[in-house]
Amino acid sequence: MEPVFEHHVRAAVPALRPYVAALTGYAYAGEPPAVHRGLPSQYLTMVITLDEPLGVAWPGAPVDKFHTLVGGLHSTAVRIGDSPNVAGIQLALTPAGSRALLGVPPGELASTVIDLDLLLGRPARELTERIRELTSWDERFGLVESLLLNAWRDEPVPEPRAELGWAWQRLCETAGGVGVQQLASEVGWSRRHLSERFGQEYGLPPKVVARVLRFGQAVDRLKRRPRTRLADLAADLGYADQAHLTREWHALAGCSPRVWMTEELPYVQDAAASGSAESEA
Hints:
Elements: E1 4-10, E2 20-29, E3 37-38, E4 44-49, E5 54-57, E6 64-66, E7 68-71, E8 78-80, E9 87-93, H1 95-102, E10 113-114, H2 117-120, H3 122-131, H4 137-154, H5 162-173, H6 180-187, H7 191-202, H8 206-224, H9 230-236, H10 242-253, H11 257-273, E11 275-279
């Protein structure tokens, strides 16, 4: 039987929007896809499962299973699945959200996945039990937001140096289109100093973040317009040619863009076409 995929997306309440880009609820009726890659992006990931633990595996590593998890910024795809989990809530956290909501700079979480309760303690453990008693997605989203709002208010965490926040914002605004030397000149630091401090704060050097941001643009473009020619996509996004685009996909996604489209794009499109829902808080 083909799986039926239920997919709900909602913007966070206004107080959380600097820290949470979106809340997504997912549920499969039937077996989930055999292959799903957690692709590098500009966001950290938080997941609260609604049934069985979720399996996560870094390349070449065994599967670890989590009822709740937080994953930091990363530059290689992780494999999601290898577990009976079929329902949960996923949040896209900004790096500022890592400090404000989880109490740690994003660099401490980079390229790793840990249990949410290691960061938020008993409230996170209680959330796992309470959220399974709820039946509506709005109630579930509201409970998660309450947990995060309480964490934000209880223990405010200092923000990073203004230069670092500014450099991150510049990279995002240009989708990775500004060079590291230019960034360094604009903040008045040496290139080496900027790269070191930026890497300490975010866990990835600015040059790698720029690659991830451009890759994210390519992913979004193929999701919206899957018939886009890869050569045109490469030209539009400033890759040297299609071969350059393909090399970047192998480095960041672990496969070619055509393999990703074949294995995962139908699932993404099905999510939009069948049980998908979106609302604003």
